Amino acid sequence: MDFNINILKNVLIELLINDSTEIFNNEREFQIALKNKLKEKFKNAGIFMECMFPLDKEINIKNNDNVENHIDLIVYDNQKTYPIELKYKAKLIAGTDDYNIHRCNFLQDIILTEKTIEQYNFECGYCIFLTNDEYLFTDKNETKVTKDLKICNIDIKAGFEYKRAGKNNNLREKYLFQNSYKFRWDKIEAGVFNNFRILVVSIPKKD
Q1: What DSSP element (H or E) covers 132?
Q2: pLDDT tens per residue across span 3-44
Q3: Are 68 and 55 spatial neighbours (Cβ–Cβ below 8 Å)?
Q4: Which one, 5, 92, 109, 118, has least CB within 10 Å?
Q5: DSSP code at position 129
Q6: What is the C-alpha to C-alpha distance for residues 171 and 116, in angstroms, rounded to an integer?
Q7: Are residues 74 and 46 in contact, defined by beta-carbon separation less than 8 angstroms?
Q8: Separation between Cα atoms, residue 84 and residue 204, nearest integer Å
Q9: Longest CA–CA separation in the chain, Å
Q10: How many CA atoms, within 13 angstroms, populate the side-chain half-sphere of residue 172?
Q11: pLDDT over 70, % of the chain
Q12: pTM over 0.85
């Protein structure tokens, strides 16, 4: 059976509800735990961390002087490659963080994954956000966030223009999503991650 979003979600739920005895301290711990869980489930697959993929300079959106995209996890199964990007944020004090940075980074992950899939002809990819901070998965601070940076239960159409802000919130660059997406957060209702939310976005190969 090919690796797909339903299999990935089942692996995540098993990891977060059944296996974990304490919440992750940081994104790196989440990355390692998911890598080990995927390796346990897919013994014949290659599971790799921190893989670098050079991108054509004109489509790199993070830094025009660095055209290597770092992918958090790669699943190589049945001669197909699946890149996975992760974001993790455990709430400290609600409302005190720069939430636009977290939203911006997640949207950048999606766009970079789209471009990596296109350039390397990968099968598809996934971007995952795990958090218990309601300022990310709800409209609680809607007055503080531009429409372009919302990631709480919204639909994004192919061709949607994402505006990336630079210093002093001046518009730096604009990018278009290649695909349409539905952002739907799932609630985890058991285990140490009880009341966390998880967003899993499937990124298809462009037709």
Answers
A1: none
A2: 899 999 999 999 999 999 999 999 999 999 999 999 999 999
A3: yes
A4: 92
A5: E
A6: 24
A7: yes
A8: 12
A9: 49
A10: 11
A11: 79
A12: yes
